[in-house]
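Example 3.2
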Amino acid sequence: MEFNVKKLASDAGVFFSRAMQFTEEKLGQAEKTELDAHFENLLARADCTKNWTEKILRQTEVLLQPNPSARVEEFLYEKLDRKVPSRVTNGELLAQYMTEAANDFGPGTPYGKTLIKVGETQRRLGAAEREFIRSASISFLTPLRNFLEGDWRTISKERRILQNRRLDLDACKARLKKAKAAEAKAALWSDEVEKAEHELRLTQTEFDRQAEVTRLLLEGISSTHVNHLRCLHEFVESQTNYYAQCYQFMLDLQKQLGSSKGEIFSGTFVGNAESASPAAATSPPVAAATLPAVPTIPVVPTIVGVPNSMAEGVLNPNEVKPPASGTRRARVLYDYEAADSTELALLADEMITVYSLPGMDPDWLIGERGNQKGKVPVTYLELLS
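Structure, written as tokens:
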């Protein structure tokens, strides 16, 4: 009991001495031992690493999980050392709603079929998102958290100890200075000077030892940067794979919708054409209802506006002539590389003139750009009014 009381009294004395030294330094009434420039640079670099790591970690968490309530829930599960329950992604939830809607509208209707196709793609996108989040959390977020909750806490602890050792050292320097000043006035203070010098030597040794420990930890920040660089590369690779998967899924969906779109629009056009011309019932469907085709004359063996090569199944772009009416402007959505001389190569965002001809595949139109003309796929165009 007596030992504990003495220890508490000693600790209180040390704390009071440090507080006095810190206060006098802030007021400019006491000298402060300065660290060397290299050490100060290490401290600044460590603080910079900690601050930016926190910001990058928090924003990456927002990127992977935009819902703040879900992030709080995941944080609590992590602190309780419990497994985070599986969560349905937004894409998977949308896929579920689309599938249920298709069943209500009729899976055999054009709208129902399209809902099912889009819903399946949304499900695949949601699954890819789930895998990306899992991969990014393991390869990128976990190392950043480990640094902040492990290495940085150790560095912070040793820095606090170093700060206390420095305060003790400067307090001993101040006491020695006062003892020498008093010794100059009376020889009776010589014992106080000797005691102060002894305390100074001890505190100097402790300070130097702690400074070396802290320096080694701070120099380890370079290894932290190397580790985080490797993790950053893995994060980029995961993100690249995720977006590549999404892009491929959407391309596949676009192809599926392009063919079904042609069927839907051609059906609408044929229905309108039947009322205008009985001969149109035997004509193949065209690309869109808003693109009128040149009417055919059954008694004439040659189709008006269509070259003989077209009637024979081979398109010669030089023989194609636009109809008197029914041409439209279109904006190109994606780059397209012509497969042969009958097709027209396209560049995204350029404007071209398009029209349809009887006998053409409904998924294709004739496109013109200046003196160039050729077949172009409907799914690569946005038809303008």
